[in-house]
Amino acid sequence: MKTHRLLISGMNGEHCVRVITKVISDQPGTRIDHIEVGRAEIGIDETKNSLNNIVAAIEKLGYKVAR
User: How many domains is the chain built from?
Assistant: First the structure.
């Protein structure tokens, strides 16, 4: 598993943390190491998923992700 640190703009509180946690958790081959308002550290098994897919799922909700 490869670890990625994401900066996520548009997160305003715990509700946003829960929403992002769910969307990442629902993706195959992912692990959340740490998440808080504005940032997430995740692991991705790149044989099962890609960072681009995870970013697309988060951005589909209206957030912006910087890698």
Answer: 1
Q: Which two tokens stand for residue 22?
A: 């769910």
Residue pLDDT, tens place only, 25-45: 999 999 999 999 999 999 999
What is the domain extent for residue 60? 2-66
Which CATH number covers residue 55? 3.30.70.100
CB-hemisphere CA count at 13 Å for 35?
A: 20
Q: What single-letter amino acid sits at 30?
A: T
Yes or no: say if 59 and 67 are a contact pair by the CB < 8 Å rule. Answer: no
pTM equals 0.91
**CA–CA distance, 39 with 17 (Å, rounded to integer):** 9
